[in-house]
Amino acid sequence: MGYQALYRVWRPQQFIDVVGQEHVTKTLQNALIQQKVSHAYLFSGPRGTGKTSAAKILSKAVNCERAPVSEPCNECAACRGITDGSIPDVIEIDAASNNGVEEIRDIRDKVKYAPNAVTYKVYIIDEVHMLSQGAFNALLKTLEEPPKHVIFILATTEPHKIPLTIISRCQRFDFKRIQPQDIVGRMSQIIEETGVKCSEQALHIIARAAEGGMRDALSLLDQAISFSEDEVSVEDALTVTGSVSQAFLGRLARAIYEKQVAEALQVLDELLALGKDTSRFIEDMIFFYRDMLLYQAAPGLGDSFERVLIDPQFKELAGLISQEQIYINIENFNKTQQEMKWTNHPRIFLEVALVKLCSQDRGSGSGSHVPDGQVQDLLGKIGELERQLQSIREQGVPAAENVKTAPAKAQRINKKAYRAPAGKITQILRQATKQDLQTVKSRWGEVLEQLSHQNQKSLAALLNEAEPVAASSAAFVLKFKYDIHCQMAMENDRFIETMAMILQQITGHRLEMAGVPESQWQQLREDFLATQNQDSTETDRKQDEDPFIAEARKLVGDELLEIKE
Known about the structure:
Blueprint: H1 6-9, H2 22-33, E1 40-44, H3 51-63, H4 77-84, E2 90-94, H5 101-110, E3 121-126, H6 133-144, E4 150-156, H7 164-167, E5 171-174, H8 180-194, E6 197-198, H9 200-209, H10 214-227, E7 231-232, H11 234-241, H12 246-257, H13 261-273, H14 278-297, H15 312-320, H16 323-340, H17 346-359, H18 372-394, H19 407-415, H20 422-431, H21 434-442, H22 444-453, H23 457-461, E8 466-471, E9 475-480, H24 483-490, H25 493-507, E10 512-517, H26 518-544, H27 547-556
Helix pairs in contact: 3-4, 5-6, 8-9, 9-10, 9-11, 10-11, 12-13, 12-15, 13-17, 14-16, 16-17, 22-25
């Protein structure tokens, strides 16, 4: 007999050989032992995860001469006949090429006949989602109430294309992608029994390239064995899978981190000279940074890594690159990957992306180097300013006594704390409506965007934690989280005028602005509500009062008026 591919020779013959699908195999084994086998099953999941193999194993188990058993014996005539395809009672149908109504009607007509050689007649319909709508309709009744000697097993990679009327008539089992370590374990068993020499790291590379499919992994392993001479090496596995060596990925990541443009472009040239595909390369880089991010967040999740093996070089690099930089790199590579799909020169986009990543955060392009001493002085001043600002926010006093810059201004701010214009705010609240407030809130994002577009970043910073809390047709109340921000905004005429112009441009009419710190807003709101309740009570009392008493009250006043029943 001619040579057979590994995935055919090592096709699972028992449930125990179906790797990574214990949630399916255990359920089926329990059903076999308890003799509770259903009349219809639906196996769904990605390619190469064992759907058709599990279907054939189930067909052998229900027809095994030693039944009820949890595993087929593979020794009796029924098991051997189903394995080699000589028993006609187990029918495998490819729905991709037999998707018409006539084929399903033929099945429906033959279902009623009893099996010839075994106990159950089993129909395995692969890629069942390829059936036409008419074929599904023809299958409905037979699938719901088949004869007692018939079992249907439907397999598909796209269950969303199957009508719900079909799914509801089956027991559904979802096969999942096989984990890389499970694939490596199965391949290790195979190469051990076949006597092939293979590097452990090469197996990991093949397993990760298979993307959860055992059949894909065995096909790649078969190809790597044919490509290699005496032993399947890491380089052989990289060549067969088209993947990029982790050493190259690490070199490129370090070059980007150290802003070495020449080194990054050199690595790219070496990879392309080896025949690597640009799309596969950029995908490997995205997964490399993704694995680095996962390693920084949860080092114990080694099984979730897609492209890397944890070695000292990777650990060192992961300790250097910050998470913020990883986000930026992934975002840039992902954007470049999208652009590469629509161009005939993907290498150019890749080179531009590398130059851009290596050149970021370098300043305005002058290329001048700031001495370390000046950098330390600037960092010290920035830290001092941050501490002073934090102190002003919390206490309203400078953070340090030796601060020499602008002490008079700081003291003026502290001596005269900002008081919100209570009368103006009360007037706005009297005329405020929910609709007006909703109008301002819905366009608030546009206001902030306009400020940014007009290069008013210092003004926009004052609104970082501010929000409109009340509005009328002519004005609105803006609440600030910090008193100092409110004071700086309300005492800045340019800020007030700019806000009025932007709001007029966006809403179509000019709105006056009244600022209030969060610490004062609650009290102002409570006072207004109390006044409103008092006015309402007074109005109700006057409406219920006798008209003669009301007239007397107008003439002499409340102090001289005495009412007796």
